[in-house]
Design brief:
The complex is a heterodimer of chains A (about 750) and B (about 290). By secondary structure, chain A is of the alpha+beta class. Helix content of chain A is about 30%, strand content about 25%. Chain A has 19 helices and 26 strands. In chain A, helix 7 crosses helix 8, helix 11 runs parallel beside helix 18 and helix 15 packs across helix 16. The longest helix of chain A has 28 residues. Chain B is about 35% helix and about 25% strand. The longest helix of chain B has 23 residues. Chain B is α+β, with helices and mostly antiparallel strands and about 290 residues long. The N and C termini of chain B lie far apart (about 45 Å). In chain B, helix 5 packs antiparallel against helix 8, helix 9 runs antiparallel to helix 10 and helix 10 crosses helix 11. In chain B, the strands form 4 sheets. A 5-stranded antiparallel beta sheet of chain B has the order 4-5-10-6-7. In chain B, strands 11-12-13-14 form a 4-stranded antiparallel beta sheet, sandwiched between helices. Chain B has 2 domains: about 150 residues, Uridine Diphospho-n-acetylenolpyruvylglucosamine Reductase, domain 3, CATH 3.30.465; about 110 residues, CO dehydrogenase flavoprotein, C-terminal domain (Enolase-like, domain 1). The chains are: A alpha+beta (about 750), B alpha+beta (about 290). At the A-B interface, helix 19 of A face helix 11 of B. The structure holds flavin-adenine dinucleotide. The site of flavin-adenine dinucleotide has 29 residues of chain B, from strand 2, helix 2, helix 7 and strand 10. The site of flavin-adenine dinucleotide (FAD) has 29 residues of chain B, from strand 2, helix 2, helix 7 and strand 10.
Chain lengths: ~750, ~290
């Protein structure tokens, strides 16, 4: 593996045990629902059973009369006058005039026990006037669709667009017509992907406390507690610094825990209950009905290709619904659509459309999997038609360093070609296939992200080190941050403890999103360690009576830099820390900023499937993920991210999807019927870590969390085509639809 | 909610007969407790059967048949070699229920009385010709399993009646049975279609057969017209195709979140063909 070529590091690239491992396997780790406080109440939420309904009246009197009930809140308990995103968040937290989707919160209660709270919630009587609703994106964009909210469109939407279009995108470059004219084959098809849920195993849970003085605390399962603080404060009209938010361990998020849902409700209930803390834990059904899935998409893609496989032009027109609020990731989907290809002419058009569904939240590489599904499927179809090898066509058109990307900027150092070459070299790429089996390949892309980051490292008296970080550890980032810090300081991995600290302890940190934790928090930790090293060298210099510039840091100790600096034995970090009380006090290092230097990551997946021709059931036989990590700090977690992305993509491709009834109610709001893959559905997912270091990071890190979910949808569609001759352009490719497609091919 | 730990079936029957609200018997609880937690069914009276003598027993009867107690968990069936040798199709149906954890609790009788058209343990019992021993206010009676399901979530048991045991007939020579279900995943799912077949051979020829289908009608169904096609055949390709067609014709499924009507109708026929082959191979001595 490429890893072994880099031996210049002592710790980076090794696979030590994760620091949170023992706590997690022994059940000691505290997740959102594990936090309790004296005097605690339980909250329960009343949710709309209608997809779209005017709220005529809410009668809370019976609930309030029930013994043990301490508070009931409705929208009337929230401040008015909010605008923009803040209004959207408030409206999604608690419905105002209208319930906008099945599961939309309309009231909440707090009581002395969970059962009592649930009983009280059932006693709240809500009178609705049911309105016509719309679920599907292609229906929602029709001019005569039920209007979800008048005046919701922003300035990008031209006059005369259908009423549910709230954002419009149009950008491109090059001469599209000339590009298509130059092609030997031009094809255009429509592809549809369903909304899918992030499916994190831990449901949302929080414990909120808010006094009449406006001071509050919250313990919550989240990817970003500063976001929670800001959003809760906005929605409730609080001062941000008066709310202290502590994140719990987190059982998955995948982007879905970067926003608020019931968190403000616990605070509002607490304030009304005299400041008693209120715990709210969602059921899986609440999670599926009311928290962020990703968007569903309907996409037209047109591509021009020459006989030799050269791409001449690409056009993408995407329609996406992200629920009853703006925010479907159309913009990012468009930017990712052709990112892997050198294209002389490209055009992007996008519509963000409202529908009566839960407000979309981020989901792993938001928009990119859908875009890849359309573009990578069409490329495969055209390669078949022209008799070309889809891998060679990808290599021929692959973007390289210095190429202008389809979405604008020039690429800096990127590893697409290296990734494709590594894919070709892997045995899975040429493994023999049997009857009813087929192989599909597809590439994927994600930008990655840096963002607002603040990190402090502090020496303890024994020379060990704590790192205070603000990005909740979802995928092993504490281990990676400890490795990078220990590498920089020249101390053992075990001597570094990384804590994810509360909002009062650091400057604002963005959430763990955009594949940024190992990149940005790691980069800041390295800078913070360098600052601490500088101070330790200074202390040694003072002790030795030499110039601080004449001291260098080697293998965890200060030493004179060369013979001219003086002759002193190295002073170890333990010695410096042991004496720090008398040499000037605590030693720490801090770094913060809006961190740039981000490196994009490309991946390529190869999947072999077997399709049962009589039932349409697809079995994944082999699966390979090849992706550029820049540098794998802890390769096991990089592999875990690759495998996790593939697993989620396999679910999205094959069986996941929201099933709405005619009445607009979600019918599959439990894991029994919302079919994520179970362990036995998946083979061991093979991985290859490609390392084309990112010059913008001290160790070369790119993000790795998101790219892995981008190729599976088209890779599997391409494999099913290879196995059956049937092309599926509408997800999920579940047994009934695959069987129908096979029959259509046979019949036709 | 009142919880009762009955000591005898008669006591359980009399509590149930007197109860005037929602009543549930508690065997493994993998349906009852899940429905309670989900707020779907909150019983007023919950009558636990696990404290009655003999409910955990699997007993070989004098005639060579089997009696299975109403609290025997699926995992116990799977661990019972002699029962598995006689009725692999019955056991494999029950073993498909849930996961390892669920297997430690879930019972055949609970699977039957929960009344799901998709219950995995039931088609095998129906195909096997099993009977249920019923205790009620009017004493004891025995009825064939296929007479118990009455539609989704319903049984034909009268108020105050409960099952005291399930009886499987003696296997006899040349018998084989099998069950398969279709699910889009590999486990932890509800059957989209299911089929159990039990048959007997003399030489290569099928002499007796029973075919049961699940998840494709409001109740699990016996399909005698499909069974008749098997009798007298050697399960040649033409017979297998005719069987598939007859089974599909007997299906009367709905379209719901788990599958479309067309798909279920077609796939239950495919399953019948595959299940018949396994049952046939087992009858001829291949025990896999
Ligand atoms: C995670 C999970 C996965 C599952 N997967 C499957 C699956 O794949 N296939 C499947 O078929 N089922 C599945 N089930 C459903 C359930 O496990 C089965 O139906 C199981 O066999 C029920 O048995 P039990 O002993 O737990 O029944 P209980 O929950 O104790 O009782 C079920 C019903 O039977 C009645 N009852 C029980 N005993 C008697 C009696 N002696 N006389 C009269 N009525 C009685 C009860 O009143 C109740 O209505 C699953 C359940 C879970 C939680």
């Amino acid at each position: 593996m490429a890893k072994d070529e880099f031996r210049e590091f002592r710790l980076v690239g090794t696979r030590p045990d994760r620091p949170d491992g023992l706590d997690k396997v022994t059940g000691r780790a505290r997740y959102g629902a594990d936090i309790s406080a004296p005097g605690m109440l339980w909250g329960a939420v009343v949710r709309s059973p209608h997809a779209h309904a005017r709220i005529v009246k809410i009668d809370t009197s019976k609930a309030e009369a029930l013994s043990g009930v301490k508070a009931v809140v409705t929208r009337a308990d929230f401040p008015t006058g909010l605008t923009g995103d803040e209004w959207d968040l408030q409206e999604n937290t608690m419905a105002g005039d209208k319930a906008l989707y099945d599961g939309h919160a309309v009231a909440a209660v707090a009581a002395t026990s969970k059962l009592r709270a649930e009983e009280a919630a059932r006693l709240i009587e809500v009178e609705y006037e049911v309105l016509p609703h719309v679920i599907d994106v292609d229906d929602a964009i029709k001019p005569d669709a039920p209007v979800i909210r008048e005046g919701a469109a922003d300035a990008t939407v031209p006059e005369g667009m259908p009423p549910n279009v709230v954002r419009y995108f149009e950008h491109g470059r090059g001469d599209l017509d000339a590009g298509f004219a130059e092609a030997d084959l031009v094809r255009e098809n429509t592809y549809r992907t369903e909304a899918t849920h992030q499916g994190y195993i831990e449901p949302h849970a929080c414990l909120g406390q808010l006094g009449e003085d406006g001071k509050g605390e919250m313990w919550v399962c989240t990817q970003g507690h500063w976001f929670i603080r800001k959003m809760c404060a906005d929605v409730l009209g609080l001062e941000k610094s008066q709310l202290r938010v502590t994140p719990s361990e987190i059982g998955g998020g995948f982007g879905g825990k970067t926003t608020i849902f019931m968190e403000p409700l616990s605070l509002a209930l607490s304030r009304k209950a005299g400041g008693r803390p209120v715990k709210i834990v969602m059921s899986r059904s609440e999670v599926l009905r009311a928290t962020g899935p990703t968007a569903s998409a309907s996409m037209d893609v047109k591509i021009g290709m020459k006989k030799d496989g050269t791409l001449t032009a690409g056009r993408a027109e995407f329609r996406m619904q992200g629920g009853a609020f703006w925010g479907a990731p159309v913009d990012m989907a468009l930017d990712c659509a052709f990112a892997a290809y050198k294209l002389p002419a490209v055009m992007h058009i996008g519509y963000d459309v409202l529908a009566n569904r839960p407000k979309a939240a981020a989901y792993r590489a938001p928009g990119s999997p859908m875009a890849a599904c359309a573009v990578e499927s069409l490329i495969d179809e055209m390669c078949r038609e022209l008799g070309l090898d889809p891998m060679e066509v990808r290599l021929k058109n692959a973007v390289r360093e210095g190429d202008r990307s389809s979405y604008g900027p020039k690429f800096k150092s990127i590893g697409l070609v290296e990734t494709l070459e590594a894919t070709k070299a892997h045995p899975n790429f040429s493994a023999p296939l049997g009857p009813n089996q087929g192989r599909g390949i597809a590439s994927g892309f994600w930008f990655n992200h840096g963002g607002e980051t603040s990190v402090t490292i502090a020496l303890s008296e024994d020379g060990t080190v704590t790192v205070s970080a603000g990005t909740p550890d979802i995928g092993g980032s504490r281990a990676s941050i400890a490795l990078m810090t220990a590498e920089t300081l020249g101390i053992p991995y075990e001597n570094v403890r990384v804590n994810i600290v509360e909002t009062g302890a650091l400057g604002v940190n963005e959430p763990t999103h955009g594949s940024r934790a190992t990149f940005a928090t790691g980069k800041a930790a390295v800078e913070a360690a360098n600052a601490a090293i500088k101070e330790m060298c200074r202390r040694a210099a003072v002790e030795w009576g030499i110039d601080p510039e004449a001291v260098e840091w080697v293998d965890g100790a200060a030493q004179p830099a060369g013979p001219n600096a003086g002759k002193f034995p190295p002073m170890s970090i333990a010695e410096i820390a042991g004496n720090m009380g008398s040499t000037g006090g605590p030693i720490s290092g801090h770094h913060e900023g809006n961190l740039g230097g981000v490196g994009a990551s490309f991946g390529c997946h190869v999947v072999d499937v077997e399709v049962d021709p009589e039932t349409g059931r697809t079995t994944i036989l082999r699966y390979l993920v090849v992706q550029d990590a820049g540098r794998a700090i802890h390769p096991a977690y990089v592999e875990g991210q690759y495998q996790g992305g593939a697993a989620q993509g396999i679910g999205w491709a094959l069986n996941e999807g929201y099933v709405y009834g005619e009445d607009g109610r979600l019918q599959n709001s439990v894991f029994l019927d919302y079919r994520v893959p179970v362990a036995s559905d998946l083979p061991m997912i093979d991985t290859v870590i490609v390392e084309v270091p990112n010059p913008g990071h001290p160790f070369g890190v790119r993000g790795v969390g998101e790219t892995g979910i981008t190729p599976p949808l088209p890779a599997i569609a391409n494999a099913i085509h290879a196995a059956t001759g049937a092309r599926l352009r509408h997800l999920p490719m579940n047994p009934p639809s695959v069987l129908a497609a096979i029959k259509a091919v046979k019949g036709g | 909610m009142r919880y009762h730990a009955a000591k005898t079936f008669e006591e359980a029957a009399s509590i149930a007969a007197k109860a005037d609200g929602v009543t549930r018997f508690l065997a493994g609880g993998t349906d009852v407790l899940v429905q309670l937690r989900a707020g779907l069914v909150t019983p007023d009276d919950l009558i636990d059967l696990k404290h009655i003598d003999g409910v955990q027993d699997i007993t070989r009867l004098d005639d060579g048949g089997w009696e299975i107690g109403v609290a025997v968990a699926g995992a116990r069936l799977g661990a019972h070699e002699a029962l598995c040798a006689d009725w692999p199709g019955v056991v494999e149906g029950m073993e498909l229920v849930g996961s390892t954890q669920v297997q430690g609790r879930a019972t055949l009788t609970g699977n039957l009385c929960n009344g799901s058209p998709a219950a995995d343990g039931v088609p095998g019992l129906v195909a096997a010709g099993a009977v249920a021993k019923i205790v009620g206010p009017d004493g004891m009676r025995e009825i064939p399993i296929e007479e118990i399901p009455a539609g989704p979530g319903k049984t034909t048991l009268a108020k105050g009646e409960l099952i005291a045991a399930v009886r499987l007939p003696a296997r006899g020579a040349g018998g084989g049975d099998a069950y398969q279900r279709f699910i889009p995943r590999t486990e932890m799912d509800i059957a989209v279609a299911g089929c159990a077949i039990n048959l007997r051979v003399e030489g290569d020829t099928i002499t007796e057969a029973r075919v049961a289908i699940g998840a494709v009608a409001p109740t699990i169904r016996l399909v005698p017209e499909a069974a008749e096609l098997l009798v007298g055949s050697t399960l040649d390709a033409a017979t297998a195709d005719a069987l598939a067609a007859a089974v599909s014709a007997a299906a009367n499924p709905i379209t719901d979140k788990r599958g479309t009507s067309e798909f279920r109708t077609e796939v239950v026929g495919v399953l019948a063909r595959r299940v018949a082959q396994t049952a046939y191979d087992r009858a001829k001595g291949d025990r896999s």
